[in-house]
Amino acid sequence: MKERKWWQSAIGYEIYPRTFFDSNGDGVGDLPGIISKLDYLEKLGVTILWICPFFKSPMDDNGYDVSDYYQVDPVFGKNADFLNLISMAHQKGIRVIIDFVLNHTSDEHPWFLEARTNRKSPKRDYYIWRDGKVNAEGKRVPPNNWQGFFDDSAWNYDEVAGQYYLKIFSKKMPDLNWESPALRQNIYQIARYWLDQGVDGFRLDAIAHLAKDLTWSDSPYDVGPDGTTLDSRKFSSIPRLFDYLREFKTEVLSRYPNAMAVGEVGGCATTEEALKYSGTDKGSIDMVFNFDSCWENGAYGSEHKSDEEIVANVVNLKHIFLRWYTDCRAKAWLPIYWNNHDHPRVLSQYGDIHFRKESGKMLATTLLFMYGTPFLYNGEEIGMSNVDYQEIRDFKDVSAMNYYKNAQRHMTEAEILRFLRRTSRVNARTPFQWTSGPHAGFSTHEPDTKVVGNYMDVNVESEEKDPDSILNFYRKAIALRKTPKILEAVIGGEFVLVDSEHPDVFAYAHKGATPLMVISNFRKFSATFKIPFAIKQILLHNYPTTEMKDGILTLRPFESYLLELSPEAKL
Ligand code: GLC
Ligand code: CA
Fold first, then answer.
1. Closest ligand 1 atom number to CA of residue 61
2. To test the ligand 1 pocket, which listed residue (168, 205, 290, 429) has its Cβ within 8 A of the most ligand atoms?
3. Is the pLDDT of residue 1 over 70?
4. Topology adopted by domain 6-102+182-474
5. Is 190 left (phi over 0), alpha (psi -120 to 50) or beta?
6. Could you say which of 2.60.40.1180, 1.10.10.10, 2.60.40.1120, 3.40.630.30 is the CATH number of the domain covering 495-565?
7. Can you give the pTM of this predicted structure?
8. Is the shortest distance between the CB of 169 and ligand 1 below 6 Å?
9. Which of 179, 309, 470, 490 is the most exposed place for a label (fewest CB within 10 A)?
10. Half-sphere exposure of 377 toward its Cβ, with a 13 Å CA cutoff?
11. pLDDT exceeds cutoff 80 at 3
12. Which ligand is nearest to the Cα of residue 22, counting in written order?
């Protein structure tokens, strides 16, 4: 096999520590809780843990608002627990990457506290300050019409500082000014510190936004009732960003040749831009997460639609994976994943709770044999699904609450509740379902985010006992992907869609010495699919029998196959 970087053959797994496992009964998940589940993770077969932020934080955005990058927040444990986690994970051949928030800090970070109180402090320049404007009524208004990602102005007025500061997320998360060389050096130092402590790399949070349009000009888009509009071009993939990243590479990554960096570029980056971030020639990081495939179920923008009107666009979904592969193959590496902690549960999006087992396994097969490094999101492997909350107040999340405030103007409570159940990121943040016991075995204490009601049936304890469970299927599928022959076929072959315009079936193949094919029905109804190739063997299947006549497969709801084709197959 061709020499590859370790992460090209790895299987990633994202952990949301707050709701993964609570070891000390305070209702909040923690690092010792993750340590106690390392055996579980090892048995699952994952080999990279991406752990969402656990550093000191006022928790306005559950840890993405960092007030001390060098300390573990006491609610998650101690620094020693993290070092322990790294060494125990390493003993199991599992690497650990941390979620590094470098676009903003908490407003309680000492840098910001100093910046807002002292105009002359060198820290002032670590953030972005502007004077407001005065409107026709003589009222002070923000410097421009930019909206942030959490549904309000991208600016917040600070009484103490006497100016507005930029904050594209919550007002407790002021954006850092990457134009400041001193700030940048501080960031590199933090990164080197954690690499020296043994972490294997980073997931770089909100990386697309480090550089802003320095003209600060208004967006030409139509503004909403509050005078703002979300125009992410004002702070996404701006050319200057790539200079910062090159410096990050020089100052940090190139000194640790085994470290891996995966950047979150979200829904704002094209494949051409992705190559600027992660292209093997000129890029500075190893790969980027885009969100293009996350919303093809139709939930995005579905405020006024009934559940029946939401239908996944399977053709688009396939073409998105193909486009990223075609544009980046040989020029950049790719992560592949369904969803993360910012999205609803994939089982509710592309699967169906009425076909939980079938669709959970179908999603596993479809993802795990695609080209790239798979990243699972915790709970996906047991088929966790969206919340069943009946009250808007159960959506404990700063972005959901901001959304609610605005949506009240044009939507009923029932519509808002339905929309949040479909789209809110809280869906992914409910306590991990370990057992059928109280609080799903996540904690002995009532957690702050409610457990989903299906935990009596959907939990690790019962899936362990069921040889036919989603969990056991994941274990099998991951083990299979790791076998050298299959791995080589998946990442060393050539990925092609088969019958790419089929509206219901996602089928792809890998050309090469061991030709493989995945055929997945994405619908809750049956579909037929013509197999134009000779099959050597069925490697994975989520139904006990096969229905095939004259080369035409009848696929039952969410039926899915991984096939090895005969080497003569003309793909
Ligand atoms: C990223 C994170 C998200 C967070 C935001 C601000 O998008 O994934 O959870 O709210 O950045 O840090
Ligand atoms: Ca705890």
1. 10
2. 205
3. no
4. TIM Barrel (3.20.20)
5. alpha
6. 2.60.40.1180
7. 0.97
8. yes
9. 309
10. 26
11. no
12. 2
